[in-house]
Amino acid sequence: MLAPGPDRGDHGCGSAAAADDTGPAAGDDRSWVGANGYGTGRNDTDHEGVAMGESRAVPVPVDRPIWSRFFTVAPLVIVGTTEGEGYDLAAKHMAMPLGWDNYFCFVCSPEHATQGNAERSGSFTVSFPRPDGIVAASLSASPRQDDNTKPGLAGIRTFPASAVDGVLVEDSYLWLECELERIVEGFGRNTLIVGRVVAAAADRDALRSADGDDADVIFNRPLLAYLSPGRFASVSESFSFPYHVNTRI
Description:
Blueprint: E1 72-75, E2 77-83, E3 86-92, E4 95-97, E5 103-108, H1 113-121, E6 123-129, H2 134-140, E7 158-160, E8 167-169, E9 172-187, E10 190-202, H3 214-220, E11 223-228, E12 231-235
Antiparallel strand pairs: 1-11, 2-3, 2-6, 4-5, 5-10, 6-9, 7-8, 9-10, 11-12
């Protein structure tokens, strides 16, 4: 069982299943429908900065956060931090490798416990849930109670990290252990938490091999994708990217 510590409020922080600093991450915020043509599907030819003409492109006003107006594909991870005498777990979808070397980052906020926990301990863990581990992600995104506990964490199976003080989520296919590298401010109310990966492990079936077919790896060990806002998908079908010579993404 995980014992939440003294800090409050970490169901945002780039969370996949609760409101975060970018707007209702999981929600059904449709207050924009019909307002100023916002959501009407009409074509605009005089929208400032964008000439739409007869195209299918519909202007999206940027006087408020735009991200609830459409779906985007993102990873879904569970970030673990040391909190008091126990540990906290929080689902994030604004998370990714940072560059080609062993760095990982996620969006957070000074208002939320994950950032304070990482600052105090100097480390955090990252678990990539399997599609059948979506319940663990949901539980980790549950809000705190009035007594500052997160009862949902008791339903998540974990095991100890090996290189940092923390826990990792069992129902996952990839696990990272990170030492805090830096916290970058200046993104409105948000920050970017950057860690250096000091230990990593993967499910045997999720590892690529020199003599194996990458399509088979993904088919046999599907990946969990978060379709922001508020949906998820299991990815088992994939195709080779049509690279040109010397092209790199």
